[in-house]
Amino acid sequence: MKTITLAAGELLDASMLTREGVLPADITQAAQRIIDAVRSEGDAAVRRYCSEFDGVDLASFRLPQEQIDAALEGLDPAFLAALEKAAAQIRDFHEREAQQSWFTTRPDGTMLGVKVTPLAAAGIYVPGGRAQYPSTVLMNAIPAKVAGVERVIMVTPPQRDAVEAGTCPISPYTLAAAKVGGVDEIYTVGGAQAVAALAYGTESIPRVGKITGPGNAYVAAAKRLVSGDVGIDMVAGPSEVCVLADATAHPAVVAADLMAQAEHDPLAACYLVTCDAAFAAEVERAIGVLVAQSPRADITRASLDNEGTIIIAADMDAAVEAVNTIAPEHLELHCADALGLLGAIRNAGAIFVGAWSTEPLGDYVAGPNHTLPTGGTAAFSNPLSVDDFVKKSSVICYTPAGLLKDAPATQRLAHAEGLWAHALSTALRRRVLERGEDAVATDALAAVDLTAVAWPDDPAETVAAGA
Asked: Residues forming the annotated binding site for substrate?
């Protein structure tokens, strides 16, 4: 891990970090070609890319419903217990996020409010191939179902060995999570072609309103490219963790916490922020001991060697500001006064407070969503939530009294912006109330100075209090 030592009074600057933050142009261009082909050719293009990238030829993309129905049969009871516990706690957390439509009425009878409507269909992308991520299924499907999404559609790459053996083409753990999480349909398609199919629809795969879930760089590029034609949660980069630790922390425990992110991906970023250089050295020594026994040692070492950073701050205030500059996906406050520091943290996707709050608890069973903003985007982005699967419509219902109260201010602002018809549409309603229906008859208006009607010289008192 590289070390950045901040002098007294010095704060971490974002330029000191090594984040790239931009998808390579060649990957973006390749994703665009795939998207264009899927839009124009539909299933034929999807099938061609499945053969080219996954090495499988599927007669049908959709997993038969009977395989979903039988997903829990024959699985390890301990795994099922863990899965169901995680699902229950994730569901409980997200149910607390759910918002209802609301309305309020002013004294003049005008009704205002918000109508909350779930998306009709949402697509969740689950990485697959040779890996299995049941936790990702739960974290994406459950908030969608809590939001009221009727049709949750999962896409995931098929496993070549299973296809060749004629068995279910996705991991039994992933399939079980889909059943427990309430997924309605599963399509064994991955990569940018799956994102394109969800965004635009094909003969076999339906179009959805929003696409969520992590994937490789091609999936991330495809999501960015289709954004605007379809909703997306975020463009996720490599996983990252930041541990803010003082000398009360156990070096080996902090080392394991850093390794828990490093083992995801050689590009995973790990940050240790502390005011104690001797403690940081002990953490590095502990990493050397622990990684020697890791079954993912090569990945872990590559991440920590190339993407790992230790920041030695002069004091805790500078350390906290370093955390806010990093704006990490996951933040652990591994300090004696962890709860007391919480208020000073402005930028983090998920905050794990205290020595007992290890980040893997959040990955699996704690309840809050583990789909989090990466690459510093926690400075302005949110975790995946129920809100991602609903849309909100403002509701505005004026009474005649309400119209008279607000019309003069509307007309004055429209006059300031030079928008004549904006003012006129309000003014004609005002005219009906002040002069009767005949005053807005077409023939009557033909003989009227409509500019004077649209932009009357109302005094400030009238503008403020209404007509």
From this structure: 239, 261, 264, 330, 363, 417, 422
Helices 277-291 and 297-307: crossing angle, nearest 10°? 150
Question: Residue 118 pairs with which residues in a beta bridge?
Answer: 390
Closest to 327 in 3D by CA, of 384, 394, 375, 272: 375
| Pair 62, 111: CB distance under 8 Å | no
Question: Is 374 a residue whose pLDDT tops 70?
Answer: yes
- SS3 state at 152: strand
Average pLDDT for residues 235-260, to the nearest whole number? 95
| Residue in 330, 334, 370, 415 annotated catalytic | 330
pLDDT digits (tens, 9 = 90+) for 146-159: 999 999 999 999 98
Active-site pick, 185, 329, 332, 359: 329
21 band by pLDDT with thresholds 50, 70 and 90: low
d(CA 268, CA 347): 19
Residue 278 vs residues 58, 246, 247, 274, 275: alpha-carbon distances, Å: 57, 11, 9, 10, 9
Secondary structure of residue 393 in the 3-state scheme: strand
- Strand 121-125 to 151-155 pairing: parallel
Q: 250: number of CA atoms within 13 Å, CB side?
A: 8
Q: Known catalytic residue: 330? A: yes
- Binding-site entries for NAD(+): 125, 193, 216
Q: Inter-axis angle of helices 134-147 and 77-95, to 10 degrees?
A: 40
Q: Residue 121: which of 209, 231, 186 has the closest Cα?
A: 209
What is the H or E stretch that residue 241 is in?
Answer: strand 240-245
| Binding site, annotated residues | 125, 193, 216, 239, 261, 264, 330, 363, 417, 422
Q: Quick check: is 284 catalytic?
A: no
pLDDT given at position 168: 85
pLDDT of residue 129: 65
